[in-house]
């Protein structure tokens, strides 16, 4: 295979240089400083003296009364944990989509992407980190973020008893106990199980990918197809259930049958933007000479197309709820649209995630220009962070939620971790999968 690759350095390997590490530590430093400033602002602002759920309309009165009854006051660490939760969900999505992308390429027998599959593969190394962080944050802050974790909601003798939430007890807790449940066993089991299987399947895919480079032939390629197919089946189930658990259950009385698709769409377009941005940056740094503008064009088409797909899901969910106008459904959007804290971000969200990429990437030439792709991908990544901000913050912090130094700081610290893990693992193996059976198709790819 190597002899067939003309004018391509098949032994090309990314160098994680001291300059690159210095840049990442700069990101970390800015993140830490922003986080400290954010904490100081929260402490000086007297946040601890205010109830964590500030009433904004009558529909929230019972929830706010519940918070007052249980004595849960707002503290700066509530906001810190919520921001960690947002970034856990967001960066788990980026890592998962890297693995998902590779799996799809193998199952679809796609050859055009063979030349850069190492990049999305490296995303998967961040899954164990987000898995541990997600579990730790839930253990430490579940009562402050998830209303359904309060035990008296399930106690029929308590004035705070909630028959709707009690009806969902079997999904979170082991049912059949006469005592009031205190530990959401099923929730923990699903969380740990999902991460274990995701990490296990990623490691199997990565192992076969490296063995393919070492040994050549079709043996490992065929194994990759089998493992990838199994991963896609499991991902289809686990991505939706994790979206219900980690995001939708925050607003416990509300549900949407489209929510699993909605979170997947946000994850997928974010992952596509991240992969594209990595490719552009590596190409500008002199790596991945195997790629050309046709590869970028196709990645640009994916970002363009799935930005529209995300908008379709967003609008469909909103329109059905708006048209039916059922109070228990419409409250989700009503609370966000009528809040001074969040209403502006809804339109900002639509502008960044639909209008901007749609208008900028509409033409063929735009998808082939690195500068435009970089701008659009950064905007999309920022936009979908705000998408998860809007999904999670209103239900956890209510009117204490905002965007400021703490949000920037926590996100930059997570960004540092993600970039460090991806770049460090990219540097350990060849950037080009030299023994991939369809490498020639990638080299001569046109569109």
General shape = globular
Estimate the helix proportion, in percent.
55-70%
The run of helices and strands is: HHHHHHHHHHHHHHHH
Number of distinct helices: 16
For the biggest sheet, the summary is:
none
Overall structural domain count: 1
Strand content: under 5%
Let me know the average pLDDT.
89
Query: From the alpha-carbon coordinates, what is the Rg to the nearest angstrom?
Result: 23 Å
Decide which structural class fits the backbone.
mainly alpha
**Weakly predicted, low-confidence segments:** 1-6, 47-71
- Report, as a whole number of angstroms, the end-to-end distance: 24 Å
Number of strands: 0
Give a topology summary:
Blueprint lengths: L17 H27 L16 H10 L5 H32 L10 H6 L3 H19 L17 H4 L2 H4 L12 H31 L3 H28 L12 H26 L8 H32 L2 H11 L5 H18 L9 H28 L7 H22 L12 H5 L4
List key phrases describing it:
0% strand; 447 residues; mainly alpha
Structure in words:
With 447 residues, this protein is an all-alpha fold. It has one domain (28-146, 184-443). The chain is 68% helix and 0% strand. It has helices at residues 18-44, 61-70, 76-107, 118-123, 127-145, 163-166, 169-172, 185-215, 219-246, 259-284, 293-324, 327-337, 343-360, 370-397, 405-426, 439-443. The chain starts with 17 loop residues before the first helix and ends with a helix. Residues 1-6 and 47-71 have low confidence and may be disordered.
């Amino acid at each position: 295979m190597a002899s067939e690759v003309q004018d391509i350095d098949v032994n090309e390997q990314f160098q994680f240089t001291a300059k690159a590490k210095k840049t990442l530590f700069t990101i970390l430093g800015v993140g830490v400083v922003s986080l400290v400033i954010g904490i100081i602002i929260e402490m000086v602002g007297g946040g601890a003296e205010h109830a964590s759920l500030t009433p904004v309309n009558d529909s929230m009165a019972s929830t706010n009364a519940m918070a007052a009854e249980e004595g849960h006051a707002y503290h700066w660490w509530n906001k810190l944990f919520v921001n960690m939760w947002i970034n856990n969900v967001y960066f788990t999505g980026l890592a998962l989509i890297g693995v998902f992308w590779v799996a799809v390429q193998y199952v679809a027998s796609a050859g055009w992407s063979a030349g850069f599959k190492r990049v999305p593969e490296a995303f998967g190394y961040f899954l164990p980190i987000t898995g541990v962080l997600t579990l730790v944050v839930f253990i430490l802050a579940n009562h402050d973020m998830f209303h359904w974790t309060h035990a008296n909601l399930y106690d029929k003798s308590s004035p705070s008893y909630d028959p709707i939430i009690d009806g969902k007890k079997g999904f979170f807790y082991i049912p059949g106990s006469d005592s009031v449940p205190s530990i959401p066993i099923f929730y923990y089991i699903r969380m740990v199980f999902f991460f274990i299987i995701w990490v296990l399947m990623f490691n199997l895919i990565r192992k076969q990918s490296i063995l393919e480079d070492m040994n050549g032939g079709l043996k490992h390629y065929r194994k990759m197809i089998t493992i990838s197919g199994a991963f896609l089946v499991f991902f289809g189930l686990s991505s939706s259930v994790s979206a219900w658990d980690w995001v939708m259950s925050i607003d416990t009385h509300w549900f949407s049958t489209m929510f699993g698709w909605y979170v997947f769409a946000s994850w997928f377009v974010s992952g596509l933007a991240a992969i594209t941005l990595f490719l552009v940056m590596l190409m500008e740094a002199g790596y991945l000479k195997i790629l050309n503008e046709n590869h970028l064009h196709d990645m640009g088409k994916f970002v363009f197309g799935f930005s529209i797909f995300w908008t379709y899901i967003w609008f469909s969910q909103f329109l059905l709820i708006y048209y039916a106008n059922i109070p228990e459904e419409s409250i989700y959007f009503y609370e966000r649209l009528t809040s001074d804290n969040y209403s502006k971000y809804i339109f900002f969200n639509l502008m960044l995630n639909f209008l901007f990429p749609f208008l900028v990437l509409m033409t063929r030439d735009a998808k082939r220009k690195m500068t435009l792709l970089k701008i659009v991908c950064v905007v999309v990544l920022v936009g979908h962070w705000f998408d998860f901000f809007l999904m999670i913050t209103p239900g956890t912090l209510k009117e204490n939620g905002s965007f400021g130094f703490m949000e920037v700081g926590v996100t930059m610290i997570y960004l540092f971790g993600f970039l460090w893990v991806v770049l460090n693992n990219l540097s350990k193996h060849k950037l080009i999968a030299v023994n991939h059976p369809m490498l020639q198709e990638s080299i001569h790819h046109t569109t």
